[in-house]
Amino acid sequence: MNEPVSNQDGFNRSAGRQLLLIAVGSVVGITLLMLGLSWASSLAGGARVSKGIDAATGTVTLALADEPPQLDSTRSTDTISSMVLGHVTEGLIKNGEGGKLAPGVAERWEITDTSATFWLRPDARWSDGKPVTAHDFVFAWRKTVDPKTASEYATIFFAIKNAEAINKGQAPVSSLGVRAEGDRILRVELVRPVAYFDKLMVFKSFNPVREDFFNATRGRYGADADTLLYNGPFKITRWVHGSKLRMEKNEFYWAKDRVKVNVLDFAYFSSDPNALINLYKDGKIALAGLNQENLNEALVKRWPINRFQRGSVAYMEFNHRKGRPTANLHLRRAIQLVIDPDEIVYRVIKLPGNVPGRSLFPVWLDGVDAKFREEYPAKRIMPDRVEARRQLALAKKALGVDKIPPLTLLSDDGALGDKLTEYYQETFRRELGLEIRIDKQIFKQRLAKMSAGDFDIVSAGWNPDFPDPLTFADLFASWNSNNRGRYKNPELDRLVAVAQTSTDVRTRMDVFGKIQEILIEDPPMVPTYEPGVVYVVDPRLKGVVRRVAGFDPDYTNVSIGEK
Amino acid sequence: MWRYTLNRLLQGIVTVWFIATATFLAMHAVPGDPMSGDRAVTPEIRKNLEAKYGLDKPLAEQYVIYLGNLARGDFGISFTQQNREVNDIIREHFPISATLGILAIVFASLGGILWGALTALYRNKLPDIVIMFFVILGISVPSFVFAALGQLALVKLNDFLGFSLLPVAGWGTVSHMLVPSLVLGLGTMAYLTRLMRSSMLEIINSDYLRTAKAKGLPATRIFTRHQLRNAILPVVTVLGPSIAGITTGSFVVESVFAIPGLGRYFVQAVQQLDYTVIMGTTVFFGSFLVLMVIIVDLLYGFIDPRVRVS
Q1: Given A5, A48, A152, which is nearest B39 (Cβ)?
Q2: What does the alpha-carbon distance between residue A221 and residue A211 come to, in Å, rounded to a whole number?
Q3: Could you please report the per-residue DSSP string of chain B?
Q4: What is the pLDDT along chain A (563 residues), one digit of tens a residue?
């Protein structure tokens, strides 16, 4: 507005000097302030600057995706808590080498069609030195099925006598079909034969909880490092919420000689892939996942890259409710015929570790003598536009319309979800002339819409609870509440019932083979891919085990070696 | 003065009550169900869960219970972190966000005042043009870009030096705080620079400045006593909301640098429909904002005596 007054330059110079003084003063001030704040927050406890691998102290530093939300095994549902619990607690049976089961707290067991008996080892101890007894299992199992606990995994106990009635509030908790004979024998009564009962015992809900300790924590069991009792290879010695969790070797663990590192230090809680890879690059953590962006860098730098299939299956699920066009078999088949899992994995996802989806049963499941999918290969659907259009014409005729109304595709808000939904939208338009409306929702809203049946197609998936085909096979049984599209096929229901009660391996696998055929002929969903992860591990860290069922990653057997 | 303070505090309490009620209603109007998970549960288990968290009661009753707990300062237990009280979450994580926020605001306000004064003194000359270029950059580039770039720069720096000068993520020491708080303060710093510049220019030709010059005061004295002190007023005005904004808006920086602050809980709670944490953090941050505005109003009186009179 106004012109500078005279001798402005001289004024500026001295004002500049003044400003410089202020600047120097504030730098000194900030330094002092930061030292003060740092002192204050070091009292509150934060991450120290440490190395990813410290051979001298036997410490491995790692990152957790997030704070473990629930370490009370009777109520825990999420994978992060599973992973932590897998290191600090142990059930009757545990995962051993090469996908086989290994004795945990139980040294041996016997499972029949009507009962199961476990003989507990005498040297299994809690981290306070007291022995782990059969009573600890009885207490934990009763706690989980108790309706007052409101455990979401109570259903996994329903093969045990009275479990379902207790959970519905129709029988007293003490009537659960499990009892301790002395301290070292645990007897379980079953209402139906369970072919995979031993595999089930690996699941965290079946872990022991000691009654006196649980009650002493006054409802805060598992809330802090000192309100949880440990019987696994490690124990939590320090847990700063949202920040770090430190595990040290448990001196009372019965197989402590097999534990080769002293400390697992989860010093960072972050799920940001770039932050994690930067920490890895800086030598602060020993393992980090890769995404599409930093995979190239890893390749250029020739880092040893590992891949691992998570064990889950991703698919497009159809809605079969009345009035939904997708209830029509021909429309579903038309869509099935234009979905190309190879293209999805190699052109859209473009990340090693992912496998094209050909069946609801993933490739890692065991069959009778070999892998299930080798013994019962899934019929391969080749993309076929001519046949797809013929099916579409049949669908239009059956529905009595000239044009299929726009279909709603419900999906989540992840970066990969975006790419995939756009691919589906374009493919369906190009191949079939179908109009797709994408309904992108955040997690809880997507679940709400799935449960309410507010979709035509939804991109969904399933993580196995235990390594048996049944965890997938019963997904589309008409009574399963995870069957969000309300698919109903009497033959499939009958076969699932057979698989649930039979204990003969051959019979069960034959049944799963037939279920696989039904899922392709009358599809409730179309498999798209089996998700995988790619990750880098510090070459000095040996023995990291990745698992499809149970907790993952498994650091219980790691050791520190040479590069 | 006391009456004025008391009046402002009462207004603040009404504002907080309004925030609490609006959040409560909005939260329950959002589609979705806090008790839902990846795995569907049987109707019985669902009922058990609802009873456990008091969600089976009618909404009006839930509201009354909630207001009662609020008056006692009890926000309840988190739905997702099922063993933690919301009060604990706030108590453990807010100091970290606050530390980060205080540092960021110190950087932002000192930087803003310095750069702003400089640009005004060298108006339309090279320093002004260069600084204003960066100011526009700072205002328009979102903080997650700066955060990612800042972290990348640290990795490159440590790589170049061959040792870890500054940690790339984590929390606990001075070295952990430096880059995240700078990144967090950048946007505000740019905004304050612009504000400071315009307010300096506004008074550069005011009567009192001319008088000061006419009576021969030394230039440095004019600058600090008359120009800077008056120009700072608008900056102080926006400082209150800025402090609250920075402290509550640190989610991105916290997640990039793996800092265990409250911002992460604030955002995740909404995505996961963790009712108690949503209510707790929103009411807490709301009260914090209201308090900051009140403090700035009172502070204003000390800087500008005219406000005290009215």
Answers
A1: A152
A2: 11
A3: -HHHHHHHHHHHHHHHHHHHHHHHHHHHHSSS-TT--SS---HHHHHHHHHHHTTTS-HHHHHHHHHHHHHTT---B-SSSTT-BHHHHHHHHHHHHHHHHHHHHHHHHHHHHHHHHHHHHTTTSHHHHHHHHHHHHHHHS-HHHHHHHHHHHHHHHHHHHSS-SS-SS--SSHHHHHHHHHHHHHHHHHHHHHHHHHHHHHHTT-HHHHHHHHTT--HHHIIIIIIIHHHHHHHHHHHHHHHHHHHHS-HHHHHHTT---HHHHHHHHHHTT-HHHHHHHHHHHHHHHHHHHHHHHHHHHHH-HHHHH-
A4: 444 444 555 566 666 667 777 777 777 777 777 677 666 655 544 444 568 899 889 999 999 988 898 999 999 888 899 999 999 999 999 998 877 899 999 999 999 999 999 999 999 999 999 999 999 999 999 999 999 888 888 989 999 999 999 999 999 999 999 999 999 999 999 999 999 999 999 999 999 999 999 999 988 899 999 999 999 999 999 998 888 899 999 999 999 999 999 999 999 888 888 889 989 988 889 999 988 778 888 888 888 889 888 889 999 999 999 989 999 999 999 999 999 999 999 999 888 889 999 999 999 999 999 999 999 999 998 999 999 999 999 999 999 999 999 999 999 877 778 889 999 999 999 999 999 999 998 888 888 888 889 999 999 999 888 889 999 999 999 988 889 999 999 999 999 999 998 989 999 999 999 999 999 999 999 999 999 989 999 999 999 999 887 888 999 999 998 87
Interface test mutation site (partner A, options B83, B89, B229, max chain A beta carbons within 10 A) = B83
Q: Which one of B40, B102, B177 has the shortest CB-CB distance to A481?
A: B40
Mutate which: B145, B146, B168, vs A, most A CBs within 10 A = B168
Tell me the backbone φ, ψ of residue A300, rounded to 5 degrees: -60, -40
Q: CB-based contact (8 Å) between B271 and chain A?
A: yes
How far is B193 from chain A, CA to nearest CA, in Å? 14
Indicate the pairing of strand A436-440 with strand A407-411: parallel
Distance CA(B156)–CA(A402), nearest Å, equals: 61
The shortest C-alpha distance from A452 to chain B (Å) reads: 10
Q: Which of B99, B122, B258 sits opposite A275 (nearest CB)?
A: B258
ipTM over 0.90: no
Which residues numbered 274-303 in B keep a CB inside 8 Å of some CB on A? none
Three-state DSSP class for A439?
strand
The pTM is what?
Answer: 0.85
Which of A22, A42, A70 lies at the smallest CB-CB distance from B83? A70
Per-residue 3-state assignment (H helix, E strand, C coil) for A22-79: HHHHHHHHHHHHHHHHHHHHHHHCCCCCCCCEECCCCEEEEEECCCCCCCCCCCCCCH
CB A208 within 8 A of CB A140: yes
Strand bridging mode A59-64 / A263-269: parallel
Which distant-in-sequence residues (6+ apart) come within 8 Å of B221 by Cβ?
none
Q: In 3D, which of A31, B158, B263, A84 has the Cα closest to residue B169?
A: B158
State CA B246 to chain mean position distance: 3
Residue (of A83, A51, A459, A150) closest to B47 by Cα position: A150
The phi-psi region of residue A313 (left if phi > 0; otherwise alpha if psi is between -120 and 50; otherwise beta) is beta
Nearest to A554 by CA among A58, A57, A91, A95: A95
